[in-house]
Write a structure and sequence with these properties.
Length: 490
């Protein structure tokens, strides 16, 4: 959908060894033309493009079309997938779908003339119906264009995902009735997020303001989570029992069909959403009750023991060596080289070299003893935005600019710059903000906070704030913690 995303995905594919080039209207005409020619001549395998690409491209043997962003309409989707297999050969189409993408497109409609909103909203509902349907996708899309397609043809060859892997259905009469009653009792004045918070019993500030947490219906759907109720709402919109009001973006209204349902409830089939998180390889993770994924707990325990031992030897708190999220990721990726270790969140090359050897040796031994297959085939290298915000911040810190000035120059808040600095330091980069600290605190105060973190079992800001009984602001403590991590960990 965006030029920026085109550039990001193309670069990400390139660093992972895939011959890919970007294509969008914002590029220089010569570069765009060259990239198209390279794709036609098969000097590159993949073109990452905005939707304008390929409207008349003379390449009949495209084999794969991937929609990274959901199209705005079924007409668009049909035309775009039709770029594959124009020579009569095989064409495969994969579409990534998240309802959050639909909500983003709905926001784009907001503020446009009502007639345009109505048309755009109807087109979006069609693409939602297609994405969330459990029937044969070929049958659905051809029916949309006035053609008939027999289920048996797709089912036999299992060409679409719904025929290949049918979704599980469940009886939804109780859930549908409960949800429609909630919307009705709240006078049809609220968006889906508010309705879901009422159902699960989440007493957010807005609900307390309206005193809806005192209603009998508050939390009467708490046996299911937010994801479940959001899925029910989406399916009821598709089934036209609910609709989203156009003038007030996102407000749920009950349709005439929905009112008829409340008067005379009938059996209704809903689709159970798949929990993809529970499909991890059991050799990498184990599963807890409720389908939640947990780490290789044995290895996690061994790594924590090793961290404690090293921390004791160096007279530092364990979190300075590696933080828990980094250890947790090690229990999934099993890093056994410096390169592997630098791919772990919160581990830069400096930190990997300084502390990594013992951890890599322990992991390598654990893998051998337990005959574990490492998931290296599935590792995706990420792209560092070399011209991005982080480099700008580091350069200005080196120039001894104040954090306030850095924030002002980027139109950001000081808190946002501090968050970026925390990400920079946690990845292993060494910085020096002592000049900033000297301008706002005396040396004894800085030393007191550093001593606190040296002796503490964690580096939680709130705990430190409470310990000093408000003598220092949270930002002051955060800045000292940054310098502490930089000095002792990186």
């Amino acid at each position: 959908m965006s030029r920026k995303k085109v550039e990001e995905i193309a670069e990400s594919l390139q660093v992972n060894g895939i011959k890919a080039l970007p294509y969008h209207a914002g590029m220089e005409a010569s570069t765009r033309s060259k990239n198209q020619d390279m794709f036609l001549m098969e000097d590159t395998d993949v073109i990452v493009a905005t939707i304008a690409f390929g409207m008349g491209i003379d390449k009949p043997d495209v084999r794969f079309v991937i929609h990274h962003d959901i199209p705005k309409s079924l007409e668009g989707y049909y035309q775009e997938t039709g770029r594959a297999g124009r020579d009569g050969g095989e064409g495969r189409c994969l579409t990534f779908y998240s309802y959050a993408d639909i909500e983003k497109l709905e926001k784009f409609l907001h503020g446009k003339p009502v007639a345009e909103q109505e048309i755009g909203n109807q087109l979006l509902q069609e693409i939602v119906s297609y994405s969330e349907t459990s029937v044969c996708r070929r049958k659905f899309i051809l029916f949309y264009f006035g053609e008939e397609y027999k289920d048996v043809d797709c089912s036999r060859d299992k060409m679409c995902d719904n025929c290949r892997d049918p979704k599980e259905h469940y009886e939804g009469i109780e859930h549908v009735t409960k949800l429609l009653k909630t919307v009705a009792l709240l006078k049809e004045n609220f968006k889906s997020k508010y309705i879901v918070n009422i159902l699960v019993g989440n007493p957010v500030a807005e609900i307390k303001t309206y005193k809806h947490d005192e209603l009998d219906i508050f939390a009467w759907g708490k046996e299911h989570d937010e994801k479940f109720w959001n899925a029910v709402i989406r399916q009821l919109v598709v089934k036209e029992l609910l609709k989203k009001q156009i003038e007030k973006y996102g407000v749920l209204k009950i349709t005439d069909e929905g009112r008829n349902y409340l008067e005379k409830p009938y059996s209704i089939s809903l689709i159970k959403e798949r929990d993809y998180k529970s499909d991890y390889d059991s050799s990498i993770v184990t599963k807890q009750a409720g389908g939640k994924v947990v780490l290789d707990e044995i290895l996690f325990g061994l790594l924590k023991d090793l961290r404690k031992e090293i921390a004791h030897e160096k007279k530092l708190p364990p979190f300075v060596i590696f933080q828990d999220p980094s250890l947790e990721e090690m229990c999934i990726q099993y890093p056994i080289s410096i390169d592997d270790l630098t791919r772990i969140s919160g581990v830069g090359k400096g930190k990997a070299i300084k502390y990594g050897k013992s951890f890599m040796e322990l992991i390598a031994k654990y893998i051998e003893e337990n005959d574990i297959e490492r998931p290296q085939d599935f590792l995706v290298k990420s792209v560092i935005n070399k011209s991005g915000l982080k480099v700008h911040i580091i350069k200005n810190i080196d120039r001894r600019q104040s954090i306030e000035d850095i924030a002002r120059a980027k139109g950001m808040k000081v808190e946002e710059i501090l968050k970026e600095l925390e990400a920079i330091v946690s990845s292993g980069t060494k910085i020096n903000i002592k000049y900033c600290l000297d301008n706002i605190m005396d040396e004894d105060s800085i030393e007191d906070i550093i001593e606190y973190f040296r002796d503490s079992e964690n580096d939680d800001i709130q705990d430190a704030y409470d310990e000093f009984e408000g003598d220092f602001s949270e930002d002051e403590i955060r800045m000292v913690r940054l310098q502490f991590h930089s000095d002792f960990a990186n």
